[in-house]
From TrEMBL:
PROSITE patterns: TPR (PS50005), TPR_REGION (PS50293). It is found in: Endoplasmic reticulum; Membrane. SMART domains: TPR. Pfam families: TMTC_DUF1736, TPR_16, TPR_19. It comes from Spheniscus mendiculus (Galapagos penguin). The keyword Transmembrane applies. GO terms for biological process: endoplasmic reticulum unfolded protein response. Its main location: endoplasmic reticulum. It is a multi-pass membrane protein. The chain crosses the membrane at residues 31-53, 131-151, 163-182, 188-208, 220-237, 243-266, 286-305, 372-391, 403-424, 430-449, 458-476. This is dolichyl-phosphate-mannose--protein mannosyltransferase. It is an enzyme of class 2 (transferase). Keywords: Endoplasmic reticulum, Membrane, Repeat, TPR repeat, Transferase, Transmembrane, Transmembrane helix. Pathway: Protein modification; protein glycosylation.
Length: 758
């Protein structure tokens, strides 16, 4: 639908757009840079953006990828698609108290498609899509920057003109190779920011199309305005920042389409000037479009609020310490310091870290802290730019600076802590969109310097050097994101005071079996943050395995004292107390864990082991049965039920449980082995033999499998096969209990048979 709206007092919008080139200076005129046709410019940007991040294509799942992808049930085919619209980014119900309220169903949907096409959790496909998305976004940036820097103008045939081909290429290259984008591209979870940016830019370009000249000479197209609102909604369903494009479209409309002078408008408002309607704000069509944008935004936010629920996300002090400060002064000072650090990452993206929380940036608590200089410098620069954007007599400068500041600040607002508490101190991923504004300001500054500089070649070489350094930094940083070990260790030099960095390095070492080194990093994490309960829990676990039970108990007791609802620590404390033979305390710890986590199969399993040690067989069986109900694939619980029933002479019941378990977990060789033992005792030799052989095929190096099969053959009277499997068992484990004695008995029997035969 096309809106036919004219204003007798104002010139037609198309005529105004056609005159833009004559009334505004050309930004490219004094700039020494590459001048390429639009197609080739986009090809160059795509190629360079690809080269920056290509080495991340075969990286692992790292850091948050585990929770958002590997452990996210919403990716699996058995989860109904409708659940995506009621769950958060991590697969938790939005109504849950533990939900982060990050509502990004379209991003999760792309993860699910990746998973289904790959046939499992293979990271290559996930990484390739991220790289393609960044290349696509970088190509779109050529068009976006041509509008932001050169203005919006169409030819007589309705084709948009690029009035700043050189500077738009430079700005797009700056965006494509900015190292701060590495987290979004090389980290699979960054897909949310990439998809959000893609639809963000499409919404902006769609809004610009609304003012393309048409045959009827109409002012604007209602269709493209509505498309822009819909694309903004899609951007928000990829990540929350996407909604800010509607505000930016309104700013663009006012400044570029209607050439509104903000300072003049404010002055007229203050004076209640009767000529206000000529200032542009009341120009026919502008208020209508802004009302449409704001109504669309309000509707989108309302629908999201209804889906998300009224409760705010639950964050802890370690996630964002400044937001928990009692003093408003401390909160304000630190928020502004965080802003200055974000600005510094845009200016000098050399010190990059996967996580900036947990002591990485100590709080500023007084004005005597030298770091106050950083936020003073930030506001000095911002105020200077804002004054130029408002007060400059050059309308071209006012427009570019205002748009640059708008794209820098408005997309950052959801992460600013101004409207609600966020769950991080600094997150490099949230600077992906604001970097558009930085690139505009940098490029405009370069054009101003070029205008003044006598040796333009030196200036161009310097900028080219910055681009090359950024390319190398992107390549290096992408390689660090390829594995958790490299990623976590790279953070040690950037944030040595960050307890989470030491915790993650320790966890990575522990997963690889290097417990001694892991202990060192876990201890450092606890030293840096004495309330870090997860580090205490993991350290306590390792000490428990090393039989250092007293210290393990102290750490786990402290962890549950600090966080009384920490179910995992309660369970681990129960295991330690069980090992110390303090059975009543262990039982109480297990039940406390279950109280705080109702569906806790591992805790029921350990509770069953405690009851078995106390010869409370019925209670043990009930506990293990609960574990298998909550987690049908819990092999250890099934095995323990079979073994306990076998040991207590309940062979028929043991057989029934074993068959039930194998129906659920048909390829579990330990279950085959346990059921084969039961069948052998029940003299079902043929079926027992088949299960033993199947278990041995699955795990040929298990000495006990061969040893027990030999016992079966021994009972069955198949002595030659019994001898063969006894020998294999002893070869695999010469100290296997009972096997040597049984083998000697068999040999004596064979010798006796030989003597009788002779």
């Amino acid at each position: 639908q096309i809106c036919n709206q004219h204003n007798a007092e104002a010139p037609n919008l198309e005529q105004a757009l056609h005159r833009m080139a004559q009334t505004e200076p050309n930004l490219d005129h004094d700039v020494l840079w590459f001048l390429l046709p639009s197609y080739w410019a986009k090809m160059v940007v795509a190629l360079i953006s690809f080269l920056c991040f290509a080495n991340s294509y075969d990286g692992d799942f790292v850091f948050d990828d585990s929770e958002a992808i590997i452990n996210n049930k919403d990716l699996r085919a058995e989860t109904p698609l409708g659940d995506l619209w009621h769950h958060d980014f991590w697969g938790s119900k939005l109504s849950s108290n533990t939900s982060h309220k990050s509502y990004r169903p379209l991003t999760v949907l792309t993860f699910r498609i990746n998973y289904l096409f790959a046939g499992g959790f293979y990271p290559v496909g996930f990484h390739v899509i991220n790289i393609i998305l960044h290349c696509t976004i970088s190509v779109l940036m050529v068009d976006v920057f041509s509008i932001l820097l050169g203005g919006l103008q169409f030819s007589n045939k309705g084709r948009r003109l690029n009035l700043a081909p050189k500077t738009s290429l430079l700005a797009a290259l700056l965006f494509a190779v900015h190292p701060v984008h590495t987290e979004c591209v090389a980290g699979i979870v960054g897909r949310a920011d990439l998809l959000c940016a893609l639809f963000f830019l499409l919404s902006f370009l769609g809004y610009c199309k609304a003012f393309r000249e048409n045959k009827e000479g109409h002012n604007f197209s209602m269709f493209w305005v509505l498309v822009s609102v819909i694309l903004g909604a899609i951007a928000m369903l990829c990540k929350e920042q996407g909604i800010t494009i509607l505000g930016l479209n309104a700013v663009f409309d006012a400044l570029v389409i209607n050439k509104l002078n903000v300072l003049e408008l404010i002055q007229k408002l203050l004076r209640k000037d009767k000529s206000l309607e000529n200032a542009g704000l009341l120009r026919k069509g502008l208020l209508f479009r802004i009302t449409l944008l704001m109504s669309g935004g309000a509707s989108i936010l309302y629908i999201r609020w209804r889906i998300m629920g009224t409760g705010p996300p639950a964050f802890t002090e370690v996630d964002n310490p400044a937001s928990f400060a009692d003093s408003l002064f401390v909160r304000a000072i630190n928020y502004n310091y965080y802003y200055s650090l974000n600005a510094w990452l845009l200016l000098c993206p050399w010190w990059l870290c996967f996580d900036w929380s947990m002591g990485c940036i100590p709080l500023i608590k007084s004005v005597s802290d030298w770091r106050i200089i950083a936020l003073v410098a930030l506001w000095f620069c911002l105020i200077g730019l804002i004054c130029q954007a408002l007060c400059s007599e050059d309308s071209h400068k006012r427009r570019i600076l205002t748009l640059g500041l708008g794209f820098l600040i408005i997309p950052f607002l959801p992460a600013s802590n101004l409207f609600f508490r966020v769950g991080f101190v600094i997150a490099e991923r949230v600077i992906y969109l604001p970097s558009i504004g930085y690139c505009v300001l940098f490029t405009y500054g370069f054009s101003l310097l070029s205008k003044q500089a006598k040796k333009k070649k030196i200036l161009a070489v310097a900028v080219l050097g910055i681009l090359l350094i950024n390319v190398m930094r992107c390549t290096l940083r992408s390689s660090q994101w390829r594995s958790e070990e490299q990623l976590f260790r790279s953070a040690l030099s950037v944030c040595p005071l960050n307890a989470k960095v030491h915790y993650n390095v320790g966890k990575n070492l522990a997963d690889k079996g290097n417990q001694s080194a892991a202990i060192k990093y876990y201890r450092e994490a606890v030293r840096l943050n004495p309330k870090y309960v997860h580090a205490m829990n993991n350290l306590g676990n390792i000490l428990k395995e090393r039989n250092e039970l007293r210290e393990a108990e102290e750490l786990l007791s402290l962890a549950v004292q600090i966080q009384p609802d920490f179910a995992a620590a309660w369970m681990n404390l129960g295991i330690v107390q069980n090992s110390l033979r303090r059975f009543e305390e262990a039982e109480q710890s297990y039940w406390t864990a279950i109280k705080h986590r109702k569906k806790y199969p591992d805790c029921y399993y350990n509770l069953g082991r405690l009851y078995a040690d106390l010869n409370r067989h019925i209670d043990a069986l009930n506990a293990w049965r609960n574990a298998t109900v909550l987690k049908p694939e819990h092999s250890l619980a099934w095995n323990n039920m079979i073994i306990l029933l076998d040991n207590t002479g309940n062979l028929a019941q043991a057989e029934a449980v074993g068959r039930e378990a194998l129906e659920l977990i048909p390829n579990d060789h330990s279950l085959m082995f346990s059921l084969a033992n039961v069948l052998g005792k029940s003299q079902k030799y043929k079926e027992s033999e088949a299960l033993f052989l199947k278990a041995i095929k699955a795990n040929p190096n298990a000495a006990s499998y061969h040893g027990n099969l030999a016992v079966l053959y021994h009972r069955w009277g198949n002595l030659d096969l019994a001898k063969k499997h006894y020998e294999v068992s002893l070869k695999l484990d010469p100290m296997a209990p009972g096997t040597k004695e049984n083998y000697n008995l068999l040999r004596r029997k064979l010798e006796q048979l030989q003597k009788k035969g002779s």
